[in-house]
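Subject: complex prediction, re-run

Hi both,

The earlier run crashed halfway through, so I resubmitted it with identical inputs.
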Amino acid sequence: MTTTNSSTAPILKMASGDFFTASYRMTGNVATTASGLFGLLNDKARASLNLEEVYVSYVSNPSAIIEQSSTAYLPKSAVEIVVLPKTASLGPEALIRGGFSRVVQHKVLITTHHYEVRGSVELPGQMELDVLLTEGSSNFIVMYSATANPCMNPKATFSGEAIIVNRRCVDFIARQN
Amino acid sequence: MATLLLIDDSPEVQRLFQVAFKNKLGYEIVIAANGEAGIEAAHRASFDVIVLDVMMPGMDGYTVARQLRQDPKTKDVPIIMYTARAQPTDKTAALEAGADAILSKLSTFDDIMATIKEVTKAKSAATAASGQVIGVLGCRGGVGATTLAVNVAASYVRRGQRACLLDLAPLSGHAALVLRMSPKPSWDDLPGEINNETVQPLLRQHASGVYLLAAPPQPPSSEISNHSFNRLSQALASVFNVVVINCSPALDATSRTAVAAVSRLLLVTSPEVTAVQAAKGMMSYLHSLSLPAERLRVVVNHSAKDMTLPSANIVMALGRTIDAELPFDESQAGALLQGMPLVTLAKSAPLPPYVLGLASLLQKM
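This time it finished cleanly. Structure:
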C-alpha cells in the first residue's frame, strides 16, 4: 500500500512483520519511508517504532494472541529480532549493503540474548565476520533466508526471507558450512 | 454456485475477495468483519468454504474456528485460515483449532484458489465415504469395553463388511493385547500429513479379518490433535464400512474429540454399584459435552460371573433405558488366551448372538 499526503510528504509504505523482544512476539505493521524498515530501524533520530494493528503473544506460546491494539510504541532498544516474510519491506539494497555493490554471502549462526538465528549475511568481499559487530554505525543487521528459534522455546521456528537482528543484543557469531 | 464466507476485518482483503471471487469467478460471497458476526453468518446459512483471518479485533480466528467446529451445523465446513501470521507454530495452532489449511496473506491468488479447491474436494470425498464410525466407551476400566469393541468390529467382518478398530485407550484396555498382536506400529507413528496412503502402512490385519490401528504400548509422545483425528477418521471411513473406536474412559482430549465425532457411542457399564455410578457420572459428562442423546446407547456387560445388580435398579439409577445387556460367557477367557474375538472363535457360545444383534442394531439406527 502506498499513500502520499502532499507533494512534500515522504512516501509511506507499510511493512508487516513479527517484532520480537526478550519475551514477546508482536505482529503488526509499521509505516516506513523510502529507506524501508531497515532504514527506519537504523534511523538514530527515532528511538521507537510506531506499530499499527498489533497482536501480541508470549514467545513461550507464540501462536496464542494475548493482547491486541490498534497502535503501539516499541523502543528499538527492546527489539532483538524482526522476522520479515518478504525482503521487499527491508528497503533499498544499496542502503542495506552499505554502498557496496559486490557482496559475498556467508552462512552464519548468530545468537542474541534470547534467540538463535541461522541464515546468510552479506559482507563486502571475503571480510571476517567480526566486521558485523565492529564496522559501521548501524544498530541492526540483516540475515537472509533465515530462521530463528527462541532459546526458551527452541521448538518454535520463525522463518522469513529476511530477519533483522539488533547488533547490540548479539552474543556470538559463528560461520556455518 | 459455490458459496464462500469471508471472516476478515481488512477492507483490502474484503475487496480482493469481492473482485476476484465474486466478480470474476462467480462465487457467492458473504463477508463478516469480525468473529462474532462470522459465527452468526455461518450458523444462519450453509457455506462450501469459510476463509478466516486470525488477527481480528475482539475474537481471534483460532477462537472462531474452535466455535465453528463445536457447532453441529458448521463442524464439517472446510475452514481456511488466511493470515499474516503463517509461521510453523501458527500453522500448528490453526490446525489444532480446526482449520483444514492455512494460507499466508502473501499468497498469490492462484495459491488461494488451489487451496480452496483442495480443501473442498477433500471434504466432499470424506462426506461421500460410507463408513460408519462407532465409539465404544467404558464408564471406567474393567467393564469389558475393549473386549466388546474387538467383538463388535469382528461382528461386522462376520457380516461380510470391512471393519477397522482404532484403539485410543493405550493404558486401560489395549486392543492389540486382546488380539495378541504387536502394538507397533501405532497411531503414535502417524506422520504429519494424514491421508489414506500414509495411514495404510500403520494398519495390521488380524486373523479374524479385523484391521487394527493400535494404541502405542507406552504413553504416547503426544495426543492426536483434533485436526489429525478428523483426518484419520475420514481416511479410515473412506476405505472401511465400519470404524470402531475404542475410546479411553479417562476421556483425554483425543477421546473427547472421538466421542464428538462418532455417529453412535456405546457406553459400557457392568451390573454392579460402582460401575453404574461411574456410568451415571459419565453420562452427565457426555451431556456437558453436548453429545446428542440419540447417539448414545447404554450397554450393560456382565464381564464377571457374580454381578447381580438387577436391570431395573440400573435403569432407575441411570434414569434411562438399557439398550443391550450382554450375558457373562465363560468361553471369553479362552478367546482372550487365543487372541481371537469370541464372535469369530465360538459362534455357538452364549455371547456372540448378543454382540451380533448389537452390531446389527447399530447399523439400523
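Residues 271 and 313 of chain B are 9 Å apart (CA to CA).

- K.
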